């Protein structure tokens, strides 16, 4: 990968650089509630059934669409449509807004654990969507999601 590739415009990143931009927080794998009357978005602690709640990684990333057909494939084009849906700390969202990565991002810190140590990830704070009905998601809203 190129040196400081994350500072390039997103549409100039190579596929491996694009994938490497992910900070590993796991927040994109949380189920969200969009309130139609206000347009507000609430993140819940209810995670995709494929999310490993400790590592904050997909347990079957390569074949995730077999098990979760509506899992979004994030691309620079798709990002323009759904950036608002990503957490404010997301590297993809930050870079699409022309903002720098946070110091805890592993590309800056050099340590994959720094996102967890900074308390940014959802490590050990989730429940599987297999154990919670969609009607009960309101009970799992995360108020303090950074």
UniProtKB/TrEMBL annotation:
Superkingdom classification of source: Bacteria
Name of protein: UPF0260 protein RM190_04215
Pfam families registered for this protein in UniProt: CxxCxxCC
UniProt organism field: Paracoccus broussonetiae
Assigned protein family: Belongs to the UPF0260 family.
């Amino acid at each position: 990968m190129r040196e400081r590739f994350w500072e390039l415009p997103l549409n100039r990143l190579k596929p491996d650089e694009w994938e490497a931009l992910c900070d590993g927080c796991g927040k994109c794998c949380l189920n969200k509630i969009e309130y139609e009357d206000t347009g507000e978005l609430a993140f819940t602690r209810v995670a995709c059934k494929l999310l490993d709640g400790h590592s904050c990684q997909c347990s079957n990333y390569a074949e995730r669409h077999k098990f979760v057909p509506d899992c979004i494939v994030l691309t620079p084009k798709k990002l323009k449509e759904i950036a608002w849906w990503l957490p404010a700390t997301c590297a993809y969202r930050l870079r699409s807004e022309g903002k720098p990565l946070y110091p805890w991002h592993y590309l800056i810190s050099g340590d994959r654990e720094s996102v967890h140590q900074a308390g940014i990830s959802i490590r050990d704070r989730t429940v599987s969507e297999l154990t919670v009905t969609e009607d009960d998601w309101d009970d799992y809203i995360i108020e303090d999601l950074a």
